[in-house]
Design goal:
Largest sheet of chain B: 6 strands, mixed
Distance between the termini of chain A: 38 Å
Oligomer: heterodimer
Helix content of chain B: 25-40%
Mean pLDDT of chain B: 94
Number of helices of chain B: 9
Radius of gyration of chain A: 18 Å
Distance between the termini of chain B: 45 Å
Strand order of the largest sheet of chain B: 7-2-8-1-10-9
CATH topology of chain B: Protocatechuate 4,5-dioxygenase, Chain B
CATH architecture of chain B: 3-Layer(aba) Sandwich
CATH superfamily of chain A: LigB-like
Shape of chain A: globular
Helix content of chain A: 25-40%
CATH topology of chain A: Protocatechuate 4,5-dioxygenase, Chain B
Low-confidence stretches of chain A: none
Shape of chain B: globular
Structural class of chain B: alpha/beta
Number of domains of chain A: 1
Number of domains of chain B: 1
Low-confidence stretches of chain B: none
CATH superfamily of chain B: LigB-like
Number of helices of chain A: 9
Order of helices and strands of chain B: EHHEEEEHEHEHEHHHHEE
Radius of gyration of chain B: 18 Å
CATH architecture of chain A: 3-Layer(aba) Sandwich
Strand content of chain B: 15-25%
């Protein structure tokens, strides 16, 4: 069996606003659009994914928060409705998700071998989190590939952002080993915003773009610092400063997704593909990808 | 306006073990028994509604108030999914929820009702309502915990609840769903070996319970910041339950407190406590933080001054 590989890594933020703005049939609320810079970037990355041969999407999500280890979805199908607890007015999504349980179990096994506390989630009533659904919908609206969802163990809460970085990196290395042994081609997804300070009020029309802007300038400056490092292919350096970024911008990188993905991909020293940056209710959101194949790697923006 | 009538308050933990696995550990069954005692007391009272403030329902857009008349779902906890599912169907006091939103707005808070089929009611609220009000004998109101809110906003929210109770002339039992110390073990444990995560957490929990037993709720409210720094995992900006409970129950120390149970829940401190308004007063703390009646929002300090 040939070795498995990571064929693409995606930074895919999950504000439910982007799904709301797309008006897919699965989502009950109807919008007049909004957040086009982000959505059009997502649309272009989704088209690139269509041109890539892969077997599964593996997503690390901040909205399945676990404090007792790292958990993996462990049943082949989940069909239900996801209502966002924070923005229920814009996200009530009927989902039907297939899970690559073999790959999930392999990742769990490897993580466990590396000393990481793990658990398979095998309760059929479990509701898949909206972070998973939003990122996966935007990257693959046809839902024609199975996924693996990995919970975010909240090391940043219990210890520090530095501990989070170390543990997420260990998990990333374990997942990379599992992918290699599985023989599968995998797209990795780190599902989160960059800076993550929200406005605490909402416009009567959530998609009123005249009201949308970053929460404050320091958040923006930090976000751009990270984008610059991504363009320059300095992912090792970026991950090294991530604890400070996380603390200063209360960033959603606290969950560990970006560190996990970069560690799994060996901390790329090539340029990221930048697809779009835009604020959503004050938070900074970037759609980006890391393509290990230098032939298909692009300068997008 | 007449003063609000809060018959008594309950402080109880959000973890699902007392509901789903009470026999797995002697402590869990003691917590379950304490919930049962509270249930009986609610049944014996002439309360018109239960008002639940759950630390496991975070909000961002202001303060969300559950207003679906009969929310129904099968809930599963993110961490303890292996303990089983929690099917629920509750009865909400929609009139009160709408009145509370108006009251909150009139005090400067951003607030809205939530009434959507399938809305994910949080583990803490599900556990509390299933154990305290299993037959939906009286309706409930669930209030979110805004993740950015700090002291003034939380106290004003409590006062808004008193306003709404007064307007509707309703008698309430208030329920705070929160751990004491909230550091859990980060590995899976044999439930028979459950214990408080550290002696420090245990010592602080017992000190808090002394205050509860003495009815010193306002003193606890004043100590919230210290409690947050000492024994709370820094998930949110502050330990808010004591602020909310004290503000909702009248901001004083005149209660008969009763600690019905205190046990470990995967390392965290789980206590079931009741506070009943009385005439006696205990406590000698100096209250050095201003009281606040109206929430004025962010102070925008970055845009002022010399910078």
């Amino acid at each position: 069996m040939p070795k498995g590989e990571i064929v693409l890594g995606c930074l895919a933020p999950h504000p439910p606003h982007v799904v709301y703005a797309e008006n897919p049939e699965q989502n009950e609320p109807v919008s007049e659009g909004g957040w086009e810079t982000l959505r059009w970037g997502y649309n272009r990355l989704a088209r690139k994914l269509k041109s890539i041969d892969y077997d599964a999407l593996v997503i690390f999500t901040p909205h399945w928060q676990t404090y007792i280890g790292t958990h993996f979805l462990g049943l082949p199908e989940f069909k239900s409705k996801s209502v966002d607890p924070v923005f229920p007015n814009i996200f009530r999504y009927n989902y039907d998700i297939k899970v690559d349980v073999d790959l999930a179990e392999k990742m769990r096994e490897k993580a466990s071998e590396h000393g990481i506390i793990t658990k398979m989630m095998r309760n059929q009533d479990f509701r898949v989190d909206y972070g998973t659904i939003t990122s996966c919908h935007m990257l693959n609206p046809d839902w024609d590939k199975p996924i693996v969802t990995i919970s975010s163990n909240r090391n940043a809460h219990y210890y520090s952002a530095e501990v989070m970085n170390e543990q997420a990196a260990a998990l990333g290395r374990a997942c990379a080993e599992a992918i290699e042994e599985s023989g599968k081609k995998v797209v990795m997804i780190s599902s989160h915003s960059l800076s993550h300070r929200h406005f605490v009020t909402e416009s009567p029309l959530p998609e009123d773009m005249s009201k949308e802007h970053i929460y404050n300038h320091s958040q923006y400056v930090w976000d751009m610092k990270l984008v610059d490092l991504m363009r320059e292919g300095k992912m090792r350096e970026l991950i090294d400063i991530l604890p400070e970024f996380t603390e200063q911008t209360i960033a959603e990188t606290e969950a560990g997704g970006l560190t996990w993905m970069m560690a799994a991909m060996g901390f790329p020293d090539y340029s990221a593909e930048i697809y779009g940056y835009q604020s959503v209710i004050g938070t900074g959101n970037l759609v980006a990808a890391w393509d290990p194949n230098s032939v298909t790697r692009e300068i997008v923006l | 306006m007449e003063d609000a009538e809060v018959l008594f308050g309950i402080y109880c933990p959000p973890h699902p073990q007392p509901l789903l696995s009470p026999d797995a550990n002697h402590g869990y069954s003691k917590l379950r028994a304490a919930f049962e005692t509270c249930r009986e007391r609610i049944e014996q009272s002439d309360a018109d509604l239960l008002i639940v403030y759950s630390t496991t329902w975070p909000s961002i857009i202001g303060h969300q108030i559950q207003a679906h008349p009969e929310p129904e779902w099968v809930h599963v906890d993110d961490d303890f999914h292996y303990l089983g599912s929690m099917p629920y169907k509750f009865k909400m006091d929609v009139d009160f929820a709408e009145c509370l939103v108006d009251s909150a707005k009139s005090r400067g808070l951003h607030s809205r009702t939530i009434a959507y089929d399938g809305f994910p009611i949080d583990t803490g609220s599900v556990v509390a309502l299933k154990l305290l009000n299993p037959d939906n004998r009286i309706p409930a109101c669930i209030v979110s915990s805004n993740m950015y809110a700090n002291r003034s906003e939380t106290i004003v929210l409590g006062k808004s609840i008193r306003d709404a109770l007064s307007k509707q002339k309703k008698k309430a039992v208030v329920v705070v769903v929160s751990s004491l110390s909230n550091r859990m073990f980060t590995e899976h444990i044999d439930p028979t070996e459950d214990r408080i995560h550290s002696p420090k957490d245990d010592e602080w929990n017992r000190k808090i319970l002394e205050f509860f037993a003495d009815g010193r709720l306002e003193d606890l409210s004043q100590l919230s910041r210290e409690i947050h720094g000492q024994i709370r995992v820094q998930k949110v900006v502050a330990y808010k339950p004591a602020w909310w409970m004290a503000a909702t129950m009248g901001q004083h120390n005149n209660y008969d407190g009763e600690v019905l149970a205190y046990e470990a829940l995967h390392g965290s401190g789980g206590a079931v406590v009741t506070l009943t308004p009385s005439t006696g007063s205990v406590g000698d703390k100096e209250f050095d933080e201003d009281d606040v009646e109206y929430y004025h929002g962010d102070r925008d300090v970055l845009t002022k001054g010399m910078l």
